[in-house]
Amino acid sequence: MICADKLVKRFEDKTALEQMSASIEKGSVYGLVGTNGSGKSTFLRLLAGVYYPDEGAITIEGQPVFENSRLKDRIFFVADDLFFFPQSTMNQMADFYASLYGGWSWERYKKLCSIFPIDPKHRINTFSKGMQRQAALVLGLSVQADYLLLDEAFDGLDPVMRGAVRRLLADDVAKRQATVIITSHNLRELEDLCDHVGLLHQGRIIFTSELDELKLGFCKVQAAFRPAREVTDFTGITIMQYEQRGSLLSMVVRGNSQEVLQYLQQFDPVFAEALPLTLEEVFVHEMEAVGYDYNNIIFG
Amino acid sequence: MTTTTSSSDNRRFWNLYWQIIKRNKGVLFLSNFCMFLVFPLPFLFQMLQNRKRVFRELSPRMLNGISHIYTDLTTVCLFVILIGFPLLVAGMLFRYLHDKKAADVYGALPITRGRILGANWLAGTTILSVPYLLSFLWVALFSAVFRYPYFNLGLMFVDLGVTLVMLQASFAIAVFCSIQAGTTFDSVFFASVLHIGPAIVLSTLPSFWEVFAYSFSWTYSNFDPHWGALLPYVTYIMEGGRLAFWICFWAVLTGVLAFCSLKLYQRRKSELSGNLMLHKSRLKGFVTLLIVWICSILFGAIFANALPSDTILGEKLAYLLGTAVGAVVSCLVVEAILARGFSTMRRSYKRMGILAGGVTIVTALIITVGAGFAERWIPSLESIESITLNSYNYNGNSIYLDQSTAYTYTLRENENITDFVNDRRGGTRSYNHYPTTWGAQFSDTEQIAYLLELCHKNVQARQQEAGFLGLKQPAEYENLSFVGRAIFRLKSGRTITRYYNWAEPETAELLDKWRFSQGYLRSTSPLFLNQAEQIDEAALWDGLLTEKYALQLSDVQKEELLDAMRQDLLQRDWGAYLAGQQQTLGYVTLLMNPPSPDQSSGRFFTGSAELEILPDSKNVLDLLGKWGLTEHLQTNPDRITQVAYTNVRYSLSSQNLFDRYRLIRASDVTSNDILYEGSIFQKMDLADGKALLTDVRTIALSAQIGEQAAVIPSGIVIPEDNLTILFFYTDELGESSVTQRFLPLSKLPEKYRNSLQQEYEDILQ
Description:
heterodimer, A: 300 residues, alpha/beta, Rossmann fold, Alpha-Beta Plaits, 2 domains, 6-stranded mixed beta sheet, 4-stranded antiparallel beta sheet, 34% helix, globular, B: 765 residues, alpha+beta, 5 domains, 24 helices
């Protein structure tokens, strides 16, 4: 379990993390979202042992990370700005990590190299941005770390590769009970992968929840009525958001979709169906529920 | 569990080390190649050059270093390599500290920071040391193949050890800076300043104190190795006890820096990587202080020299103004360099103000408080056992041999050393070698008291008169370079050395008079330092040195002659001699051997010693009369076949304590003067169609002039006067030989005087 307790990290006159507290269960895929400069990368660096906190503590399985080589052997950090030794090839980088990480698997490395369309014998500096990202992920996955920290992991990846990475991460979690923390400023990138999400704003986690719980609490339905109905007619359900176009009414409603559809049947709809709810929509409503204006946080 | 972790950490340490070595194998190869080019290869060439001559001409001094293995090229290159190479290697290996992306990777590695530092340090040491180790192996191989007579494996190991310690020290400084700096530029900047800054400050401090407080310096040169040893490469050229001391110093410093680097690295903030050092940093503060201090001294000297000031007060104020300006300017420049612009100036003005003001105030305190303390630094009469002064003796010599330091040197196989002052033992390959010693030594209380009085006079005058910085000397001293070195050997066993780089005129005159005092002559003349049994040959010459008469003397006669020469020297009318009023009647020359080992243990001379026979040389003249040899003092003009006149410049290169009164001797004439003579001859050729005057009348006249002219060989040359040389050519056993007499130009016949005067003026123009 990862536990951050009142973490403070300052850079000269700027505070990146302000009394941040969080706990992340082992074996989960935790998505950390937030705007640029909200402190996501700083949190990951603290978690990877690159930085040490100015105040507070960050522990994994009850142990501090900084200068804890035994623990760090089970953590791998893929930074947003990737680093490879000058003029090095994938194989040379692999040799470097293999010599330092106890969990390195050459077998997995070779397998991953065959999955991703990159030549491990070519110099990495000749790769495109997306290919470099793939190389970093191949190296990171070959380490077989218990804790995989991915900072903007999908940045530069095409949709096909994103799908591949998602599957590989899901496989890691399923087979080895790995914990993945992945940051992004784009919720849509995370919703297919994460089981937990947290929103970081101005150095604090202002919201964190299990994704299933979030989605279970809301549903999105679409129904058509003839004659058209006013939204005020539906007093038996809690409508969070609605949109009316003629006789077609789209609503985000608190509760189970089956129950809501059953309720709508008494108004004799032309049709009524449940629609998938995006993570962003869930966030908007959940945050409004706890008193935040999501749009102001993200765009403000 | 702890053992498992430790074992795992050790494995990672060595793995990381090999990874670094693998990544830098190109650098390792290149450095080995370059090192071979500048070290073993020149040594090989030296061996090849000397192979045919079987080291006949090769003495240990031809190659440098403790084990005599460095050629001049190698020595110069190694100085550069000792500083530059560690800086370069540290820059490469610790570049990850200055790159944000690399810092992420290294910071997240499952290995402690201490081990990361250790692995990089060890890799750096390997990259730095392997080229040296291989080079030494090459040199040892070449030495063995070519049977280099000075090959000594033990000394080579010492040389190697010294080199490795110096490399480590330079590397430690560079790493120490890398850990604290955020960018490679800052790291190199700090390391460079730390390499040379303390050495410059400590080297200039003696001069600074000399100027402001003591009126003497501890060192002859501002870059004397004693202070300059703070530069690694200066340590490198030292030998003996000083080398041992400074090697220990560097070794300890390396250890301290390694420890500090480890502690700093363990708490180093990774976020520093790639950032400028805009926040408070002790290293930045120290480096800035060094630069500000150096610049303030430099600007102070420039202002004191450039601004018009006739009084010592004026010079001091000018110096202070320069100090303040230098401090402010350097503060601004350093801040702009480290901030890469002027954006931080407003925030830093208070700190810069305090720094510049502090340096100026400290300088002002030294200037004002230091004055008047100078005489405290001259030892008391009671505490002194002897004083060694770098003064020339009456014969213009300042280099002595000392029986007490003699040792026997046995030639090695294939060795034939010719440049040693030695005494070959018949039929053996062993030599008595006498190291030379410099300066006249005085242990008589009266002489010591006199010298101390002169020191005090000089200091007092220096404190009171203009010429405060030594930059504005009185006009009559403009062309004189004065360096007076006094070594006070105290009864406590301590030795104090004082350099007086400026002589107050009154002191100089007193010193000059003292040079001809009986005490001085007894302490410095070969006639008194050598014994009669050392006389190998004695000869009598006429006044123009055209004819030599070899004296065949018994031991008793040698004693008599030496005693007479000593008495005449002591009783000489130096006033008339220095005024150029005494005619030279002839010369007695003595060729001296070293004393036998069981004889005196003091100083002595070898080679030739001579004494002019003047009208007041009564003892020698009486002895020659008694032996019936007076007739050999007469010059026979018929022996002279040719005669020539020329003149010489006064700017002879020899320096001595009495620079105002120059001893003009044939040996003092430099190659420049000879060139000048050559040009005179050439011009005379063009003008007269002949260089040498061969008509009988001219020769007779010249001989007469030469005989009657004032004594010049060891006399005064008045700076305003011009000097001429008369060359007398004789046929000695069928071979032409030449002797020369120095004369004031005014003594020549008008025809030649005018001609030479004109030539002299033409060339000066």
